[in-house]
Amino acid sequence: PELASAPSYMRSRLDLTKVNAVLAEIERLLTAKYSLLNKPRTTLSEAERKQHAVWRHQQEGLEKGTRFVSEEDFKPSPFIKQDATGKSILAVLRHVGRLREFKHAGLRCWQAR
Asked: What are the angstrom distances between the C-alpha of 80 and each of 25, 36, 65?
C-alpha cells in the first residue's frame, strides 16, 4: 500500500522485494553502527576505534538520539547502490515517509522513521 501511494514516475519498475531489502539493510546498518558506538572504547579493535571516531565526529552538532546513516555507510552494502535503481528506491522511501533526508557535515544522511 505504501509503495502504491508513490507516483508511478518515482516507482518506475521497482518491486516490493527490492524496497523491503533496502529497508532491512538500512535497519541492519543502523543496528551495527549504534551497537559499535555504544561499546566502551577499551574493548574496540584498532579498525573499530577509527570507525568509532569517524561516526562520533559525524554526530557532532546533531540532536541527541538522532539515528542516521550516511552515503559513506552505504558503500560496503550489497543492497544499496548509488545507481538509478538505488536512488529511485531512496526517493520512494522519502516520499512515503519512511526516510528523512538531510545534509550534515558535508554528507547526505538519512534518518529512518
From this structure: 8, 21, 24
Nine-digit cell at 84? 538509478
In sequence order, which residues have a C-beta less than 8 Å from that of residue 69 and are 6 or more positions away?
A: 26, 29, 30, 33, 109, 110, 112
Angle between helices 16-37 and 46-59 (to 10 degrees): 100
- Per-residue pLDDT reduced to its tens digit, 3-28: 888 898 888 888 889 999 999 999 99
Q: Assess contact for 33 and 74: CB atoms under 8 A.
A: no
Residue found by looking up cell 522511501 in the block? 93
Compute the chain's Rg from CA coordinates. Answer: 15
The answer to whether 36 and 52 have CB atoms below 8 angstroms apart is yes
Note whether 98 and 12 are within 8 A (CB).
no
- Starting at the earlier edge strand, list the strands of the sheet with 68-70: 68-70, 107-112, 99-104
